[in-house]
Write a structure and sequence with these properties.
115 residues; 7-stranded mixed sheet; mainly beta
């Protein structure tokens, strides 16, 4: 199983980014997917989750209204669209899923929000 994130980078406060996570080695359409983020020295936190069919989503309170998780099962890809970015959104963002009771993580993509 491989999860490969991309789309991170440097963005100014108030800007937007769209992260992507391409998966392989699993039947993507069967599994819920999540985005987490982590700042050095802090615990990894859940950003957003989406059901296998894409009909249900959930968000951490601080991301509601600014972030949108979506998926394209035909492309085995999950996305995170981030708007109105704040400096405190700076972190490494990770893609995650659970398959057969095992946790799978990507290597992460760095998002830096700074002027």
């Amino acid at each position: 199983v491989q999860l490969v994130e991309s789309g991170g980078g440097l963005v100014q406060p108030g800007g937007s980014l769209k992260l992507s996570c391409v998966t392989s080695g699993i039947t993507f359409s069967r599994y819920a997917m999540n985005w987490y983020r982590q700042v050095p020295g802090k615990e990894r936190e859940l950003v957003a989750g989406i059901s296998s069919a894409g009909d249900r989503t959930n968000y951490a309170d601080s991301m509601k209204g600014r972030f949108t998780i979506s998926r394209d099962n035909a492309k085995s890809t999950v996305y995170l669209t981030m708007n109105s970015l704040k400096p405190e959104d700076s972190a490494v963002y990770y893609c995650h899923t659970i398959s057969q009771n095992m946790n799978y993580w990507g290597k992460g993509t760095l998002v830096t929000v700074s002027s």
